[in-house]
Design goal:
The complex is a heterodimer of chains A (320) and B (198). With 320 residues, chain A is an alpha/beta fold. Helix content of chain A is 18%, strand content 34%. In chain A, strands 1, 2, 3, 4, 5, 6 and 7 form a 7-stranded antiparallel sheet that branches. In chain A, helix 2 links the parallel strand 8 and strand 9. With 198 residues, chain B is of the alpha/beta class. Chain B has 2 domains: 105 residues, Nucleotide-binding domain of ferredoxin-NADP reductase (FNR) module (Rossmann fold, 3-Layer(aba) Sandwich); 60 residues, no CATH class. Helices cover 22% and strands 30% of the residues of chain B. In chain B, strands 3-2-1-4-5 form a 5-stranded parallel sheet, sandwiched between helices. In chain B, strand 6 and strand 7 form a beta hairpin. The two termini of chain B are 18 Å apart. The chains are: A alpha/beta (320), B alpha/beta (198). Bound molecules: FE2/S2 (inorganic) cluster.
């Protein structure tokens, strides 16, 4: 079976934080201890919705050293394929669910002399765990957190009361914005940037840092892409000799799994590279949506990341 | 000609690059001897306006040409040992956006790279270009003493006197290649020394 190892958990608490974001607490069903993780790690949550099983990655936000429970915060996305809506409307305290062992694609570089964190909206969640980890080690960090409004500022109160000197909050609706030029200018040598938030914010920070001469190795970012719905299409799996249909609301990876074919994955969000699959034949257009393949690989249409990418056209044959 | 094509080797052996001017707020260039040529090769007035050059001539006469580039700061030191406190001081006061360029002998680049890494720059973000002598800085794995400017293989450890075989096994932490006793099994059976790349 692909993916990280699974853990059976029970939902022991559901706390709505604001209009869009709700926090979930998971404790192991068998009463034991959960694996520890490192700040920035995510877990893949399985959501059984009738015949459909959705698996979405969520950053772990609890204390990495607290092995009694994992907590995640889920932002409701009414436009999406329904994973977050399922969490918000169908999951109840006491439910049993399956989550994966933690996987970290956004870990702290502990060689850094200083950790400069930049969060946008729900992108705050991995930092909550990283801050707990750094505080234990007396790490040097500073957080700049942009949110839409005070009402939607998840964890702002918690952060500003526990770390008044290290946290700066910016509210879009009050015309406040991170002054990136002066923030990046004058940071001590050995500072690493971590950015998690919307795509535009990640590109803005990466672009500015590169322009100012920051090494690529000192700029870390994480953006999970939710698979986007799209036109249904047909795929031939060459090795398993199957022809499968990918539904409108389903990702290619999910359709492969539904057909009983074991396919590798880890993040299910176009970031980790695990699901990379060779394309045997493509007559039509592959809609590449991942952050993994290089531009020339995307252009050549010889590879696809089935967790987020789709296809439009006549024939797609995969080496799977 | 100050360039040398190093033969392919094991993974541990550092691979040096070619300097290029990169975007950055400040530039620190550290060079010895013929390394000056690599700096002369990329220097432009705009680049030099934000550049600090630390140079060890080691008997060559490039210093005047380097200072004629009018870098923001120019320091000429008699030896690496004399320059290192200045290098440390510059790195301590530096900010992100600093670009580091190292060029010249392997010993100079390795040691300066160690300082830059200690200051928090990822080693893959430090530019290098080998120029000039191919002599090595060697650590004797037996007595741990360092012998500078080793040109032959085998050589005699300047600390403990053992006959050492020159390996390509490199330590980034020590900025030195490892030298291992060549006649431990059969004392006195030492091959005739020859140039490292002969
Ligand atoms: S599963 Fe991680 S990129 Fe597809």
């Amino acid at each position: 079976m692909s993916g990280a190892e699974k853990i059976a958990v029970r939902v022991t608490d559901i706390t709505p934080l604001n209009e869009l974001v709700t926090r979930f607490r998971f404790e192991p069903v068998n009463g034991g201890l959960l694996p520890t993780f490192s700040g920035g790690a995510h877990t893949v949550v399985e959501m059984r919705d009738g015949d459909i099983t959705r698996m979405n990655p969520y950053s772990l936000m609890s204390d990495p050293f607290d092995r009694s429970a994992y907590t995640i915060s889920v932002r409701r996305d009414d436009e999406g394929r329904g994973g977050s809506k399922f969490m918000h409307t169908r999951v109840k305290v006491g439910d049993e669910m399956i989550v994966s062992n933690p996987v970290n694609l956004f870990s702290l570089d502990l060689r850094a002399k200083k950790h400069l964190m930049i969060a946008g909206g729900i992108g705050i969640t991995p930092f909550l765990a990283q801050i707990k980890q750094l505080d234990r080690a007396h790490g040097n960090w500073e957080l700049h957190y942009a949110c839409r409004s005070e009402a939607l500022g998840s964890y702002v109160d918690y952060l500003t009361t526990t770390h008044p000197n290290d946290v700066s909050v910016y509210y879009d609706d009050q015309g406040q914005a991170i002054d990136l030029d002066s923030l990046l200018d004058g940071q001590p040598l050995g500072t690493h940037i971590y950015v998690c938030g919307p795509k535009g914010m990640i590109e803005w920070v990466r672009g500015k840092a590169a322009e100012m001469g920051w090494p690529r190795e000192a700029v870390h970012y994480e953006e999970f892409l939710a698979p986007q719905p799209g036109k249904p299409f047909e795929v031939k799996l060459a090795i398993s000799n199957k022809v499968i249909q990918v539904g409108e609301q389903e990702s290619l990876l999910e359709a492969i799994e539904r057909a009983g074919v074991d396919a590798p994955y880890l993040c299910r969000g176009g970031a980790c590279g695990q699901c990379e699959t060779n394309v045997v034949q493509a007559e039509g257009e592959i809609l590449h949506r991942d952050h993994w393949l290089e531009d020339d690989e995307k252009a050549s249409d010889t590879k696809i990341m089935p967790c987020v990418s789709r296809f439009e056209g006549k024939t797609l044959v995969l080496d799977r | 000609m100050s360039k040398f094509e190093f033969p392919p080797s094991i993974k541990s052996r550092p691979v040096w690059g070619t300097l290029e001017a990169r975007a950055g707020k400040h530039h620190l260039m550290i060079a010895d001897a013929e390394g000056a040529e690599a700096i002369l090769g990329i220097a432009t007035p705009e680049l030099m306006a934000n550049t600090h050059i630390i140079y060890i001539p080691a008997g060559t006469d490039y210093a005047a040409r380097l200072s004629a580039l009018k870098p923001a700061q120019f320091y000429e030191g008699p030896s690496y040992a004399a320059a290192v406190t200045r290098i440390q001081r510059v790195l301590q006061d530096a900010h992100m956006g600093l670009q580091v360029y190292l060029t010249g002998t392997e010993g100079l680049m390795g040691q300066a790279m160690h300082e830059a890494m200690q200051a928090g720059i990822p080693h893959t973000a430090i530019q290098t270009e080998h120029r000039g002598s191919v002599a090595r800085r060697m650590q004797c794995v037996h007595c741990k003493g360092i012998t500078e400017n080793v040109e032959t293989d085998p050589f005699v450890c300047s600390h403990c006197g053992l006959n050492l075989f020159v390996r390509d096994h490199y330590s980034r932490r020590l900025a030195a290649y490892q030298g291992v006793c060549i006649d431990a099994e059969d004392p006195g059976n030492v091959p005739e020394p020859k140039g490292i790349y002969e």
